[in-house]
From TrEMBL:
Pfam families registered for this protein in UniProt: PLATZ
Protein name per UniProt: B box-type domain-containing protein
Chain intervals for the UniProt region annotation (Disordered): 198-243
Domain of life, per lineage: Eukaryota
């Protein structure tokens, strides 16, 4: 019994040693989106599809009047999984090395990792959950990157940006009825380093794209690799209520 108690304390100590996530990031990764709002469930379009970065909770369109002066982040959904536009998310956190997907012409990032039906073999997989990725990406979702850096004991402040409320105003929300997104595009390449792929490609159903087989090299990923954006806000300290 004393051994079990000692192991329990050691586990708690390890959890305490992990670098803490700011409240908005913890909330975004843990919140339930697209469920019916308990306050406005009798009204049409009462799904919670907006995240308040100040209150750290999900709200529905009818709740927005109470959060009009707060920084707000639009959340969308693809095949039962929550996504955020890359252009919005990269104002909050360094998204480099997270694989983006293009849906309805917009680049998006999955908030959390998705279950996989079977094991896959590839030369390039997510460092956290082993989902097949295209090079040069190392993570399939925001949570996979954050969890990996936390596990490595890295300081998350190195990838977090100070929230600029002018970037997340009520008037900037795209309440255009396209929260339930359509098909992911098959393949696209930007002039930058962003490439996207479809879930069908992941499952090997795209006969035109042959997976290159090669020995997986030992990873040399380090926190410095994700500091390539050179943002005007990189490394800025977090102050209440966003810390």
């Amino acid at each position: 019994k004393s051994k079990m108690m000692r192991e329990g304390h050691e586990e708690e100590d390890m959890m305490m040693m992990l670098p803490r996530k700011p409240a908005w990031l913890e909330g975004l990764m843990a919140e339930t989106f697209f469920s019916s709002c308990g306050i406005h469930e009798s009204r049409r379009k009462s799904e919670k599809n907006v995240f308040c970065l100040l209150c750290c909770l999900s709200v529905c369109p009818h709740c927005l009047t109470s959060h009009r002066s707060h920084p707000l982040l639009q959340v969308r959904r693809y095949v039962y999984h929550d996504v955020v536009r890359l252009s919005d998310l990269e104002k909050l956190i360094d998204c480099s090395y997270i694989q983006p997907y293009t849906i309805n012409g917009a680049k998006v990032i999955f908030i959390n990792q998705r279950p996989q039906s079977r094991a896959k073999v590839s030369s390039n997989v997510c460092f956290t959950c082993d989902r097949i990725l295209q090079e040069p990406f190392h993570f399939c979702s925001l949570s996979c990157k954050v969890d990996y850096l936390q596990y490595q004991g890295d300081d998350l402040s190195s990838i977090l940006y100070r929230i600029d409320e002018s970037d997340f105003t009520f008037s900037s929300l795209r309440m255009d009825g396209h929260d339930q997104l359509g098909e992911i595009s098959t393949m696209e390449e930007d002039t930058d380093d962003i490439m996207v792929m479809s879930d069908q490609w992941e499952q090997g159903n795209n006969s035109n794209k042959k997976e290159k087989r090669k020995t997986k090299k030992e990873s040399n990923y380090s926190p410095g690799m994700v500091l390539s954006l050179g943002s005007r806000r990189k490394g800025a300290p977090h102050r209440a209520p966003f810390s």
